[in-house]
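Example complex used in Figure S2.
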Amino acid sequence: MIKEEEIWKILEKIRDPELGVSIVKMGMIKKVELKNRKVLVECELTTPACPLKKEIEESIREELRKIDGIDDVEIKTTAKVLPSRRVLPEDILPNVKNIIAIGSGKGGVGKTTVSCNLAIALAQNGAKVGLLDGDIYGPSVPKMLAIKEPVRTDGKKLIPPEVHGIKVISIGFFITEDTPLIWRGPIISGALRQLFTDVDWGELDYLIVDLPPGTGDIPLTLAQTLPNAHGVIVTTPQPAAYSIAMKALMMFRKLNLNVIGVIENMSYFICPHCKGRVDIFGSGGGKELADKLGVSFLGGIPLDTEIRIGSDEGIPIVVSNPSSEAAKAYHEIAKRLAGKLSIISYKLLKT
Ligand SMILES: Nc1ncnc2c1ncn2[C@@H]1O[C@H](COP(=O)(O)OP(=O)(O)OP(=O)(O)O)[C@@H](O)[C@H]1O
Ligand SMILES: [Mg+2]
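Predicted assembly (351 residues):
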């Protein structure tokens, strides 16, 4: 009769597909229980949005099924997100494990739409997520998520409203739509800092920060405020995409923010009538661009009228139509991003 120790030995040979390290050595296997020819394995992943979840589960099942004397394999998968940033003593967000700033070298490429859908997609996988609207002059997150109620406070901190499973804060909650902001530099910096420090974020696995357009003073100030954050660049497939994305890359690098990768928005067109896919700009451009920049390609999102409608009506497509191709694309990107952050976290843990 097989023993539990032998099962541990078999599991030790299974490696995380991306890191090549044994899943037992990584501490992923929390429990092995053998009862009447049935084995129960408890597996803890480094993110609930793990892109390799199925692959890892399948490998465990396949290896254990080979054993004589085992008829059934049950896998219970949980997740505990690791921090991809070093929390320093003076850290303004000590309870936030991962901070991801979404930027681009140009306005109107879809940063806010990507930020909202990506944040919700991560939360739909079971992660604790916050979204900070870093656009002080033109905050568009409140409208994109149809948040109208006033922000409450507990007397000490602001309580961020929660929609579609994410906590959200925006300067737009404190000004009316037709009040132009005419604040100057130091006040802007102070206001931005308050969005981080005066908000009760609680514990967060991921904080997504939607940066304002371009590489001007505000995005720079904002990125400077982010302690040990990572950056993601949003581009569109146009001839000038390279130089635009390069500007964003330079901005992040100037601030010592590690750039995880590129998301290509409006990559291809989804016909609203037949729902067919048209590669207007050819295919593979996003990947080529990421290679040229020397960063990862996180994926492409279609140009889809339903995405625009979702933004206008305040219900992002990952909520309004989760089975759409666009929603699936956001989910794939969320998983790829979470996977990349997990690798960084694991390496950080080992240093
Ligand atoms: N993939 C898409 N398909 C269709 N419409 C999209 C897509 N992505 C964004 N949009 C639309 O494009 C417009 C601009 O998007 P968004 O506001 O997200 O861009 P942005 O980069 O944040 O802009 P800004 O630089 O002004 O902050 C919005 O109307 C949005 O609904
Ligand atoms: Mg925006």
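The mean pLDDT is 92. The chain has two domains: 4-79, 96-349.
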